[in-house]
Amino acid sequence: MSFPKISPKKIIRKIKHNFFSSVNSGKFSETLLKKIIEIHTGLKKDKIKNDFSSVCVLREWAHENILWGERPHLVDEDKKFYFYYKNAPEIFSAFFEKKGGVMCGGGAYALSRLYSLYGIESYVLDVGKVGINTHAVVLVRVLFNGKSLLCLQDPMCNLSMVDENQDPLDYFDLLENMCNKMVDKKNILYGKARSVLFLGKDKEKEMIINLEDEVGSDFLNFLEKCFLPKKPYYIFSFPISILSFPVPEKDNELIKKACRIISKLT
Predict the structure, then answer these.
(1) Long-range contact pairs involving 60-64 (C-beta distance under 8 Å, separation at least 24)
(2) pLDDT tens digits for 211-248?
(3) Total-model pTM
(4) What are the structural domain ranges in the chain?
């Protein structure tokens, strides 16, 4: 007896339909979001932990499924939606239903909430110089070779910062290396997924978002004044604030540590 073949896309559409219904009813939404991620990535929910491979796979999935946008089509600026009070199922349901897009800040929050779904500690990190150029990324706690590291993950540009062996690099070691001008392109590990730019109802286009596009010439000139290389990834060496989920008491401790390191630049 033969059975009709069902494409993975049809399966995912069916799961998404059930997912929307479950979000509205408040039932099983976390389970169904994890099932969608498992189908897309092949990672089973009980295998996702705070290791470098898992957090990179989740970032790659988030980059592809976050609906990136521009004003006036931003869901995180919808005063009726309360984006920054939502959990991962509610956020990604909004993206799947095309309620609106986000820029780097909303994307970083979405990835952080996704990590939280799997019990992984993470922080939203704002970097740059207010009034010139800012950007938002995520610091996520990973275990690597017996060490606990805070690894930088950029969901918008789909990259993570690594050492010369392509292994995870602790953010505070990254800051030290940047102070010593020891960071270059070999320290960037890009993902392969493509993203979608939301342009309004029934309007979107596939695109690749590069860090070079997010860091403008004004900030590169600012780097030169700080005697740093005019490279866009040096924006990560200027932390503005760190917000954590779900360990808020660590916020001040981490930003103070970062500021102590970068005080060498001023």
Answers:
(1) 60/158, 60/191, 60/192, 60/193, 61/37, 61/193, 62/107, 62/110, 62/111, 62/114, 62/155, 63/107, 63/155, 63/156, 63/158, 63/191, 63/193, 63/195, 64/193, 64/194, 64/195, 64/196
(2) 888 899 999 999 999 999 999 999 999 999 888 655 55
(3) 0.85
(4) 48-265
